[in-house]
Design a protein that fits this description.
Layout lengths: L6 E5 L12 H14 L3 E4 L11 H15 L5 E4 L5 H9 L8 E5 L8 H14 L4 E5 L1 H4 L5 H10 L3 E6 L4 H10 L5 E4 L5 H7 L3 E4 L6 H12 L3 H17 L7 H9 L16 H11 L3
Helix pairs in contact: 1-2, 1-9, 3-4, 4-6, 6-7, 8-9, 9-10, 11-12
């Protein structure tokens, strides 16, 4: 049951048409693009997938479609989180986990729980979840940091809490987690531009935004890093660095959707309250893409 997810996971975007409907034809192209590009696993309905603006039925439909078109070639991680613990548990209880290998669950946002509250939140989810759980620490979005002590306690106390996606940008905190974690607990990068140095510190992979557009280059960089071939990894890291930074100039996933439109894979459309990137940022992304 507790399959280890390492290497490159791609946080799939959800393509939309200009009428806000889901563009399944483009989603098919995207899944084929990243699977062929060599990523190790797929993440459906993470932040990059715009899960807050999709209904539960839409989320299920996207999950089922990705599973179908990927032909179960890769493990699938499904985003289930929120700031209402009981609502998260209810969602888990009403979810068919047949094609789900793990869930990604972000820390509760807006209500700013204490570390005790975060621990009990994830303890409650762990008691209800039949598949492995990847904790997602992203304080830049949630306004709360899941600190090293709490992460390690959760990793030691619950068999099905098997990984953390760390996007705090706090190198000392991350090193404390890597240094003291159980052997079977995986630490994944939540920051594309830090992934290579994070792996040098001891991380085992990434859940990437950039890999939507450049799955081969990004996953090759991750694999080289995991093999300690940092000469190759550095070349790929710096080849992608400026583009990766530009994708976040006006937030995510607006930037990567612009890149995917330039590649002819999906459109740039996002759902409100997000907006497509400006013409200036679009041009910057396009310019950096010409160098790859």
């Amino acid at each position: 049951m507790y399959k280890k997810l390492t290497g490159t996971g791609v946080a799939l975007v959800t393509p939309f048409r200009n009428d806000d409907s889901i563009d399944f034809s483009s989603l098919n192209k995207l899944v084929e693009h990243v699977v062929t590009g060599g990523v190790e696993f797929l993440v459906v309905m993470g932040t990059t997938g715009e899960n807050p603006v999709l209904s539960q039925q839409e989320q299920k439909t996207v999950l089922d479609y990705v599973t179908e078109v990927s032909e179960k070639k890769l493990p699938v991680v499904f985003g289930i989180g929120g700031n209402n613990t009981q609502a998260v548990v209810n969602t888990i209880k009403n979810t068919d986990f047949t094609n789900i290998d793990a869930i990604l669950s972000a820390t509760p946002y807006y209500n700013k729980p204490t570390q005790k509250g975060l621990y009990i939140h994830y303890k409650t989810i762990a008691s209800a979840c039949p598949v492995p759980i990847i904790l997602y620490n992203v304080p830049g979005r949630t306004s709360v940091n899941l600190n090293a002590e709490t992460t390690l306690k959760l990793a030691n106390d619950f068999e099905n809490i098997t990984a953390v996606k760390e996007a705090s940008g706090n190198f000392d905190q991350i090193m404390q987690i890597i240094k003291n974690k159980p052997d079977d607990f995986t630490v994944l990068s939540g920051d594309d531009t830090y992934t290579m140095p994070y792996i040098a510190m001891g991380m085992e992979g990434v859940i990437s935004v950039t890999a939507n557009a450049y799955p081969k280059e990004f996953s090759d960089m991750v694999r080289a890093s995991l093999k300690y071939d940092f000469k190759t990894a550095q070349e790929l890291h710096y080849k992608l660095l400026d583009l990766s930074n530009s994708l976040f100039l006006e937030g995510n996933p607006g930037g990567v959707k612009a890149a995917l439109e330039i590649l002819g894979i999906t459109s740039k459309y996002v759902r409100l309250p997000l907006a497509s990137v400006s013409k200036g940022t679009y041009k910057i992304i396009e310019t950096f893409m010409k160098n790859i």
